[in-house]
Every structure is written in C-alpha cells, then in structure tokens.
Design brief:
- The chain is of the alpha+beta class.
- It has one domain: Pnp Oxidase, Chain A, CATH 2.30.110.10.
- The chain is about 15% helix and about 45% strand.
- The chain has a 7-stranded antiparallel sheet. A 3-stranded antiparallel sheet has the order 1-11-12, with no helix packed on it. Strands 7-8 form a two-stranded antiparallel sheet.
- The longest helix has 9 residues.
C-alpha cells in the first residue's frame, strides 16, 4: 500500500534537522536557498550531501556552475533562514544587506562570517531521488568555523537545540 505524501511529511517533521544556507555564484547573480537536508557523507574525501527540489532554480544553477558554499546557521540566523526559504526571493546579496559575509575562495559563493561553520565545495555527483536531487559536494575548504547554538528545523518551525520555537528579537 502506497504511503500518503501528507502522512510521510508529517512523520518526518518529527525529526530535527540542522539548517544551512546554500549559495551559488553564477555569471548573472548570487543564488541562495535554505536547506535542512544536509548530511555528512565522508571524511576522506570530505563530502557532504544536500537535498534540493529537482525543479528548483538553486538546483539548476548549482548543477550548471558546479560549485557553491554551505553556511551552517545558528539560532541568531532564524530570520535569515526564513528569507531564503521564501518563494520568489531576490538576489542573495539583497537578502544579506545587513549581514557580514565574504566570498569563498574556490567557489566564489557567499559564506556568512557569523556562521557556525561554512564549507566551500565543488559538485562531486548528483543523484535523482523522486522530486528531489541528492547533491554530493566535495569540500575544498572550511572558510568559517565559529561558535554558537545551531538553528534547528523541527515540526515545520525553526527552533533552538532544545526544540523551543524562536521568537523575533
């Protein structure tokens, strides 16, 4: 018997996941998207995986360019994570006007100076997975290694590590 998509989504909303900001620089602009499907895959070679909607613009640009950066977000980045998860968002640089950032050396993509960590990556491989793509990224550098409490997504909300919803400052 097939699993109902709504039931499947409700079940996985019970699983807490860290939140990252994936950014890609192409010839036109900077593209960014919030990701909570992030996984450490291998230490040798260093690989991480991200899940992206197969029909989304970030997946299209990442595959075309072949490189990007992933900033792992802290609780102080909840509003930023919401901005990058909204449909029809403008350029990544416009969403980051008041946030300190710099460009990663290998990819040229944006990394947040205040991230818990950031990895600069090249695309290793892409695997189709239903309506998503699983993108394996080879880590070329770790340009940011910071501190703080991780931003978590649980039950459809951004929370602190204890599962408490975050309030606007």
């Amino acid at each position: 018997m097939p699993v109902d998509p709504a039931t499947f989504s409700a079940a996985l909303r019970q699983y807490a996941a860290g939140v990252g900001l994936l950014t890609v620089r192409d010839d036109i602009d900077d593209v960014g998207t919030t990701v909570s499907s992030v996984m450490s895959v291998s230490a040798d070679p260093p690989l991480v995986a991200v899940g992206l909607a197969a029909d989304g613009y970030p997946a299209e640009v990442l595959q075309a360019v072949g490189r990007g950066a992933l900033s792992l977000l802290g609780t102080r980045h909840a509003i930023l994570a919401s901005r990058f998860s909204s449909a029809g968002r403008p350029s990544a640089r416009h969403l980051l006007e008041s946030v300190p950032w710099h460009r990663a050396q290998a990819s040229g993509a944006i990394v947040l100076d205040g991230a818990l960590a950031a990895v600069d990556c090249t695309v290793h491989s892409v695997v189709g997975a239903g309506d998503h793509l699983l993108v394996l990224l080879q880590v070329e550098d770790v340009p940011v290694l910071g501190e703080g409490d991780p931003l978590v997504r649980l039950r459809g909300r951004f929370t602190d590590p204890a599962g408490q919803p975050l309030r606007r400052p």
